[in-house]
Structures are given as structure tokens and as C-alpha cells.
Amino acid sequence: MAKTRGKKIQTTPDLKLHDVWKRYIREPSAQSDEHHQVVYRSIRQFDADARQGILDELSQIENQSLHQNNRLRYIREKIMDLVDRKISATYLRQLSGNNGQDANPPETEATEKSLDLALTDCEIQIAILRAYAAQKYGDHHPDDWFAFYARLSAYFYGRMVGKQEGAGARDSSFKGWTLAPTGENFQRLREECLDAYVGQEFELPAGAKRRFQTLRRTFKWQSIRKKLIS
Q1: Angle value at C-alpha 206, between 200 and 210, nearest 5 degrees
Q2: Rounded to an integer, what distance in angstroms lies between the CA atom of residue 76 and that of residue 73?
Q3: Closest by Cα among 168, 146, 171, 134 to 156
Q4: Any idea what DSSP says for residue 201?
Q5: What Rg value do the Cα atoms of the chain yield, rounded?
Q6: How far does Cα 122 stand from its chain's mean position?
Q7: Is the dihedral of CA 195, 197, 199, 202 positive or negative?
Q8: pLDDT for 67-98, tens place per residue?
Q9: How far is 68 from 177, CA to CA, in rounded Å?
Q10: At residue 204, does pLDDT exceed 90?
Q11: What's the average model confidence in pLDDT over 136-150?
Q12: What is the C-alpha separation between 211 and 69, in angstroms, rounded?
């Protein structure tokens, strides 16, 4: 289910997160890659105070990581939390925009705007932390723990909250254990990702991949809202 890549990323052990932040808030040049442009546009959606707030949160994560026995593991855990938060905001935003009304009332529009900003905030923090972990620890490879977790988090979220596939739905498996939609399995998944070697690749189980592609069509607003807001 997993393998290790041979190529290693050149690292900068003394890198500061603020250096990564400064790179992304700098206006992209014609030679800048698309990722830089996307993150830059996302940051520009926030005013100066909000941007400072995002940076403060990221700096707090960095400072706390430096006091951990396993610094990279702590960074990964915070990225996972942001992924989960992003998925929640994404589904809530999609469903709030599909309420069947031609014109949303002001309170719905305000909620949608708030969810949009929450989603963008998560995307910015994930991008900055991933870039920081890549340059400082070499932790950034195709099909690594992050790619695996992002998709499996959505899979588990859909199965546990939506419950639209029925009791007879066939569960995928990973490393010999079934990916039934339980909190215990989800925690085991997190541990696999947290403990992955740098450069380790993961394969997404085929069943989970198929379900991930259809989850957004199976959710009901009331079931999600009850789980996330109650």
C-alpha cells in the first residue's frame, strides 16, 4: 500500500516560517509558478488585520512545533486539522448555496461569505505549512501522506456524516483493516499519516477513490448541519 521515493528534497534547516510567508505575499512575477499566484490571490482576499491574524496563527504553530520531540509530526497534525476544517467548510458552503432559492436572504449570504473566508483561510494555512515543511524537513512528495489524508478525510467525513450509502455499502480496506466509517478507524488513519516516513507514498484504496468522487452528490444539508453545528 505504501512505498518510498528515492529522490530527496534539498532542505533549509534554519528556515523561518515568516520567510515562507513573505515569499507568498510578494506579488508574483511573470516567472512565478501557478501555485504562488493562487496563494497570493487568496491572501489578498483578506484585509491587513485579517492577514496578520493568519500569520499569527501560523507563527504560533511554528513556535509550538519547535518545542516538540517530533517537530514534523506536530506540523503534520496541524495540517490534518486544517484539512478537516476545510472539508467541513467546503461541504457547508456547497449545500448552503443549493437551497433551492433564487435569491438568498441577507443572513444566508453572510453565512456563505463567512464560509468562503473560512475555506480560503484553511487553504492559505495549508499551503504555507506545506511549503514550510517541504523546505525545512523535505516533507513534500507526490502521493504522500498529505494527498492520501486529504482524500480519505473527505471519504470518512462523507460516510460518517452523510450516511447515504446504506448499511450494505461495501467498505474499502487499507493495510489489512476495513475503512468502515468509525471514529476509531479515522484515528488509525491519522496515525498512519503522522508516522509516515518522509517521501513515503500512499495508494488510495479503489473503493474509497470511487466514493470520494460521488460524496458531494449524496449529502443532505440537515444531517451535516446537525453534526457540525449542534
Answers
A1: 125
A2: 5
A3: 171
A4: E
A5: 19
A6: 7
A7: negative
A8: 999 999 999 999 999 999 998 887 777 776 66
A9: 30
A10: no
A11: 91
A12: 37
Residue with cell 486544517: 82
The position carrying cell 516533507 is 139
Judge whether 1 and 174 are in contact, CB under 8 Å.
yes
Which residue has cell 491574524?
Answer: 53
Are 165 and 44 within 8 A, CB to CB? no
Closest CA to 53 of 155, 124, 148, 105: 124
Residue 191, Cβ density class (10 Å: 0-12 exposed, 13-18 middle, ≥19 buried): exposed
Pick from 150, 167, 159: nearest CA to 218? 159
3-state class of 4 per DSSP? strand
Q: How far apart are CA 144 and CA 3, in angstroms?
A: 9
